[in-house]
């Protein structure tokens, strides 16, 4: 006999999904990033590793999101609408609707010239679109200059690093601090008011340099660093202002293979600290291993987005980005190694 009290299948499924969502642990109060920076991914003896609550929660939330371009997400930190940038007759960016999920690691991939860097420039105020609007953490960001964007919590690194070669590594870090009171004309007359802040900035800078394995170089000119070390320095500097969203433009390019794993760990631990990450990357191994969500851009448009595995297995994506390698099985990591740098 049919059980009349039993909810219909759809309702039962929905109830299960709601329960799963409710089961998500609420974020505990965390120490600021720089205090735990020295831990890296290895906690001191007797201490717990930084919680993975954010990663778990994002994975669960995004599991319910359709894999289609421009899809709405449960808790977006950045929302872009109809953002268009033309250079002469060429449209470099034409993004209809795009959302980045808070606390997630989102990869932005696409062939050379797809418009990825231009999109970063537009979102962070380094370039101005022909039209469009975008909101960061609920605030309209059009006509906001890059310094203010950074103060609001959205910070980017550059594909071609921009470190000050003739300043020391430590001084480069201090330039990333949002509050540099010693440089203010009026406040500099009252050393008591700024010495403490400067001291804090320095401690924070040193903790980050330690984490990024650059502490021994802190007094060297930044110009003496290798290409990979400059990338690390830029990322560390971006963290000086405790961003809510960090946008990394090809963070792995030029990084020594030995440092790559630790860079991956750094990015994952940023998420665990509650920082949202958007990164552009051609290394699809990296994308597969750390991204919660993958967005594909081609000719300025978002052409696909979704779970890494689903997107990477989409024949249209494979065709567009892997060209001659379209027939390879992307589920096999050994094959991916051969394709590194081709996406
Ligand atoms: N300042 C500029 N003036 C003219 N054209 C530009 C300018 N900046 C970018 N472009 C063009 O816009 C298009 C998108 O460039 P963009 O650098 O954003 O691509 P990308 O996806 O970052 O590529 P890559 O993977 O090679 O870094 C390209 O055709 C590029 O030549
Ligand atoms: Mg680029």
TrEMBL record:
Keywords in alphabetical order: ATP-binding, Hydrolase, Nucleotide-binding, Transport
Keyword ATP-binding: yes
Record has Transport as a keyword: yes
GO cellular component: plasma membrane
EC number assigned by the record: 3.6.3.25
Record-annotated ABC transporter domain positions: 78-324
SMART domains, alphabetized: AAA
Gene Ontology terms for molecular function: ATP binding; ATP hydrolysis activity
Enzyme class: hydrolase
Gene3D superfamilies: P-loop containing nucleotide triphosphate hydrolases (3.40.50.300)
Region (Disordered): 1-27
Designated name of the protein: Branched-chain amino acid transport system ATP-binding protein
Organism per entry: Bifidobacterium choerinum
Lineage per the UniProt record: Bacteria, Bacillati, Actinomycetota, Actinomycetes, Bifidobacteriales
């Amino acid at each position: 006999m049919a059980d009349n009290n039993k909810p219909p299948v759809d309702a039962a499924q929905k109830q299960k999904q709601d329960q799963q969502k409710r089961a998500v642990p609420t974020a505990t109060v965390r120490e600021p990033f720089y205090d735990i920076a020295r831990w890296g991914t290895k906690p001191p003896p007797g201490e717990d590793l930084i919680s993975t609550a954010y990663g778990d929660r994002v994975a669960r939330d995004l599991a319910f999101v359709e894999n289609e371009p421009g899809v709405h997400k449960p808790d977006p930190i950045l929302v872009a609408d109809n953002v268009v940038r033309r250079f002469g007759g060429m449209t470099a960016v034409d993004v209809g609707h795009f959302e980045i999920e808070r606390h997630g690691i989102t990869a932005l991939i696409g062939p050379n010239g797809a418009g990825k860097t231009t999109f970063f420039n537009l979102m962070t105020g380094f370039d101005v679109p022909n039209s469009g609007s975008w909101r960061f953490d609920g605030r309209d960001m059009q006509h906001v200059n890059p310094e203010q964007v950074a103060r609001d919590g959205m910070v980017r690194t550059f594909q071609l690093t921009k470190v000050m070669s003739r300043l020391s590594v430590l001084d480069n870090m201090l330039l990333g601090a949002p509050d540099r009171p010693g440089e203010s004309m009026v406040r500099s007359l009252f050393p008591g008011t700024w010495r403490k802040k400067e001291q804090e900035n320095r401690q924070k800078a040193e903790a980050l340099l330690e984490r990024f394995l650059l502490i021994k170089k802190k007094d060297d000119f930044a110009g003496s660093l290798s290409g990979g070390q400059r990338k690390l320095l830029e990322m560390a500097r971006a963290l000086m202002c405790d961003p809510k969203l960090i946008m990394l433009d090809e963070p792995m390019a030029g990084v020594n293979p030995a440092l790559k794993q630790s860079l991956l760990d750094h990015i994952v631990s940023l998420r665990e600290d509650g920082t949202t990450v958007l990164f552009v990357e051609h290394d699809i191994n990296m994308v597969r291993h750390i991204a919660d969500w993958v967005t594909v851009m081609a000719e300025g448009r978002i052409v696909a987005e979704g779970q890494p595995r689903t997107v990477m297995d989409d024949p249209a994506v494979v065709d567009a980005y892997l060209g001659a390698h379209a027939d390879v099985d992307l589920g096999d990591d050994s094959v991916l190694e051969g394709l590194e740098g081709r996406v």
